[in-house]
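Session log. Operator J.P. requested a structure for one protein chain; no other inputs attached. Running the standard single-chain path with token output.
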Amino acid sequence: MTDMPAGSPQVARRLVLMRHAQAAPAPFGEMGIQADLNRPLTPHGRQGAARQGAVLRARHFVPDLIMVSPAVRTCQTLEAIGSFYGDRQPDIRYVNALYDAAPQTIRDLLYEVPDKINNIMILAHNPGLQALVAHWAARHCPPDAENALQQGFPPAAMACFTATKAWNQAEDGDIRLQDLSCQ
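Structure written below.
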């Protein structure tokens, strides 16, 4: 139940969790975090991100805030998505904690978002994203998304969630999977 007075409209808040698109492996012989951070998208990855951008535009998703891992592949994914926010420029934050983030780290970032932020996109990595998507979807999963969810969360996958409470107040049971878009 919501704490809103009777007759008040509920604000639909949307959250898109997106995994970066397909990236090239690190150059032969280069290892470590810096080599992984510098992995660029492949041409296929750029195309996949562009297709997902078209999906976001078709759904009229306009983020107030975009949080992005600082890895080259996530930054290039955001660029390849293209503009989907119309006249409004979202607040884009490059968040170091999103690189190799655990599900709880991603969740904690939402607790830091001000009440007035309704629509958020988080662009990051597996396995943290997949684990968080599976956790929230286990509570509320549309039947047509169940099969796709079982297949994992591949590159350029997106999960759209809604909540009627502010993201910094919503509990796991308040967050509902609306749609899953995997390529």
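Operator note: The two ends are 35 Å apart (CA to CA).
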